[in-house]
Design goal:
Distance between the termini: 56 Å
Largest sheet: 7 strands, parallel
Shape: globular
Order of helices and strands: HEHEHHEHEHHEEEHEEHEEHEEHEHHH
Number of helices: 14
Helix content: 25-40%
Length: about 450
Amino acid sequence: MKFFFLLATTLVAPAAGFTAGFSPSRAAASQQSKFQLRAEEHKTAVAADGVANGTDKKKVIVLGGDGFCGWPTSLYLSDQGHDVVIVDNLSRRNIDTELGCDSLTPIQPPDVRVQAWKDVSGKEMKFVNLDVAKEYDLLVQLIKEEQPDSIVHFAEQRAAPYSMKTSKTKRYTVDNNVSGSNNLCCAVIDSEVDAHIVHLGTMGVYGYGTSGGEIPEGYIDVILPGGREANILHPAYPGSVYHATKCLDALLWQFYQKNDQLRVTDLHQGIVWGTNTPQTIKDERLVNRFDYDGDYGTVLNRFLMQGAMGVPLTVYGTGGQTRAFIHITDTARCIEIAINNPPETGERVEIFNQVAETRRVRDVAKLVADQTGVEVNLLPNPRQEAAENELDVSNRKFCNLGLDPISLDAALFDEVTEVVNKYKHRCDPTKILPASFWNKKRAEECASLDPSSVKIKV
């Protein structure tokens, strides 16, 4: 299998080494040039043969294609020359209503988004409103009609805090995520279409700091009783109900690959940051969603929003948690790399670590604080997790297949800050502090947090 030989030893370095030598001005110029160069290279490749990177045009169904990762990925795949069908039941928009907190950016309805993309690119994308977890017959029918080469699976409730909010959200997360993944496997089998499933998983399936060294890509070498050597699926160690559903997904992929020879790629992704991509900036109607609240706002996006608005950064606990990060643009690029490099029928589930780098949360907060001049506030931690952890992650496979990941730097920090400043009138400051707690003890420790105390500097 071509993924397993190493052309280079490209590793994600330990967190301790990331802040040394950080130069905002130099990094900003370098990153901006890289961003522009990628756009020009893409334009040249598409002009040459109609499909970027010389790959074959594929029919791709993107489940959850209206969401934070799904929408920019759909645009990117279409821009690369693939035929894209977006499927979404708009549940994330409904959760906005439930939480009383809209995206900071004013995202347009799906029909407006799709038409805007046609206006600026000349390319059509179909949108289908369908609930993958509940409307099984319609899912089977869709796969039969579209005959996709690949099905990208984003259609899951994606926020760990929301999954821990109440017994209702815990049950919803399990019902939606696990049923949706199982339905997808069954639908591919029943439709008799040999579609390659590409699933967006999470680094959280590994747990944090439990491997005793570098976290491999999906499988780990072990010695069983009697001195027997084996290479097995990495043990699961979820930190929330959301992460538990991703672990259950991983077992479903293993079963259906073994039993029905489904072709599956599982992407264990780090925390996504950023909002714009080269495609979403083409028209304001294409803008991606930007979540800033305590439930759905990813940590770096929350920090950047808070810094831009003059709000002290909300660091949970000591900030000693080390996490993996990836820019939203690289999320889309990784999806296409996975689509273009599927496992053969009968080969085991392919697993990639979809990360660019690891950093400690307090170090990320310092980068933002130094740039914006805001203070850093250490808050009681609403999560049940280790106060400090190390994280060393292998990302060799994507790098060997051509990924040159975007790193955290001032150029893209500025991009997010510009978005925040443009739409800060849409921010509800009472939604910034954490509002979901892992257990009663954590809720009691956070009882002193007052949402109404957060003030935005005008």
